[in-house]
Here is the input.
Amino acid sequence: MMELQIQNSALHDIDSIFKFYRIATDFQKAKSMVYWPEFDRKLIEQELEENRQWKMIADQDIACVWATTFDDPDIWEERNDDPAVYIHRIATNPNFRGKNLVNTIVNWSIEYAIANNKKFVRLDTVGENRGLIDHYRKCGFNFLGLKKLRNTAGLPAHYDNASVSLFEIKL
Here is the structure.
């Protein structure tokens, strides 16, 4: 059994973060899914500075990365007033695919939310990817349905003119 550790990513991890984003984007393109744009380096640097970028270490390798925030008004609109942890951009090292790392992230996120006095763990994904919807449900999320976003001006390009699948765990 592999030992997993979760910790904040650091500036020296930024090349790995972008490598995993590129791998995820290539995978999304190969599956003819809505795919991630190239993210602005300044966005990731800001997340690193604010300790909102995370990594899971397994066998001294980065197994996956993701970001968190306590605020996501462009996607969650009026529900943003709820005290929640929002998970974004889970990207897995291909050497660790199929290891149920999302379950580990979910368990960690629940503990993180409780420690920060939040009542929900939430995430979204662009479009209606049935496989991903089923996967997140198996990981404990409730699928809240598809929502057409009203204003995507402040969001990355893959949200333009998109519907999103919303997920949450109520604590």
